[in-house]
From TrEMBL:
UniProt keyword Hydrolase present: yes
Organism in which the protein naturally occurs: Hymenobacter sedentarius
Protein name: Hydrolase
UniProt superkingdom: Bacteria
Start and end residues of each N-acetyltransferase domain: 52-209
Amino acid sequence: MATSSNGKASAAASSNGKATTGGSHAKKVGKPALTPSVVERLTPTAVPAHKLVLRTLRRSDFKAVKEIMDKVYSNMEGAWAADEFAALLRKFPEGQIGIEDNGRLVAAALAIIVQYSDFGDRHTYAKITGHGKFDTHNDNGDTLYGVDVFVDPEYRSLRLGRRLYDARKELCENLNLRAMVAGGRIPGYAQYANEMTPAKYVEMVRNKEVVDPILTFQLSNEFHVRKIIRGYLPYDSESKAFATLLEWINVYYEEEEKLIGNTKSNVRIGIVQWQMRATRSLEDLLQQMEFFVDTVSGYKADCVMFPEFFNAPLMALTNEDSPAVAIRAMAAFTEPIKAKMMELAVSYNINIVAGSMPVYEDGKLFNVAYLCRRDGTVDEQYKLHVTPDEASYWGMRGGDKLKCFDTDFGKIGILVCYDVEFPELARMLSDEGVKILFVPFWTDTKNAYQRVRICAQARAIENECYVAITGSVGNLPRVENMDIQYSQSAVFSPSDFAFPHDAIVAEATPNTEMTLIADLDLDLLKDLNTSGAVRNLRDRRKDLYSLGWTVKKSDRDDELLSQGTEERITRSRRKAIAAG
């Protein structure tokens, strides 16, 4: 379109798209001709065209950066100093991003890389930025830390902040960083400080009951609030010195691979559905154990699991009529079995969850599961909840510690049978980073088995993890209280599109001796946590409830033992009456 020497439009488009001159010579096509003032308002020349360019910052940008920061932070400490800006560009030039419009810088985002574990969630802005020196930047770190984002107030309607965050996400992915973290101001909190806590304010913003000029924007950009920090920016009066610790997870992050010894993302596990059969000696049992370890290791499995009390056939060798005496006598076999399992783990290069076995120590009977790692180390998990039957027949007691185990294929947990029916235990293990939960069990009837199975499936969904269960089958006529078995071993997954439609990875034939091999993709759990249809771990209402562990020993075991004694006496009387 042509313009006159005074800059105003001298022509307009007619209804047929052809240019016409203004004034009295304009053609009439059923509508009045546009006056020069109307033409001026409607033509593009009245609104300067934008030409936005996303680029990394240069040292020559400092003047423009300072002007914007002085506007944005006029009520705080204003802009960075020139040497601080230069330090950022020198240490991490790729992380300093700007947007220019027609050659004028109008927005910027500043960042560094840190090893987040060096600072943790309780850091302050001054500490993590090295008090403006940025010597905290670590090229080998795992987290992109957002130092600042600011937009010229004249350009806030163009959503430039979203472009900057998208550029940061792309940078995070391209540099293969675990996450992007930032401390977010909550300037809207000041007007609510007398009415509610910062946590309540954040919840109100999340629920869209309140709009915060910064937090609302950050939540809409896929950040989630890890926690609230006090004293993050002491001089931030609008936020009352509080800040939200925000995190965006890079779902494409891949841990740096070493040439050997990498943590696996695909894990193969084997589970043994064990046949209870009469045995003539400890050596017979050890040979049966080795057969299954050899078999499963032949499939290059990372781990194999045996059932709870898989060594029960040895109870018949004790020649004891009393179940309580017999199981204590059987506990004498536990140490040599454990030693053999440790030997097999190393020689067959496989981690072994050695079911569970009775342990008699300091005059108390426990049920203990062993983890024999293929590097030669061993660890144990005591069964925490004993059943009324275990207390009644055997006088068994529960342990008082819950462990998260490190293995060469990730963190795992072990819950022995009844323990899986208590959701608090699996949740605490999940909080420690456990991705695979192993549950060795022993059940005699199908309804008892169903309790274990259904609870195990619930634990997989609740905690976004895999759960493997296995028990024994067959019968032991000469072993009271262990005479019949029921089992259908299985591996369960969370329930979402990336997993099997019925959330069952694999399952055995009921009541048949066999092994089960399953491959587990741990990366699917990461995707579920960030982009699943539901996100159970992330969506917990920690503002309403919490879960903790107490070391105070209760009298529950003694009460259970007392109840069990009474029940046993009552059953004996009934048998005597029935016998005449």
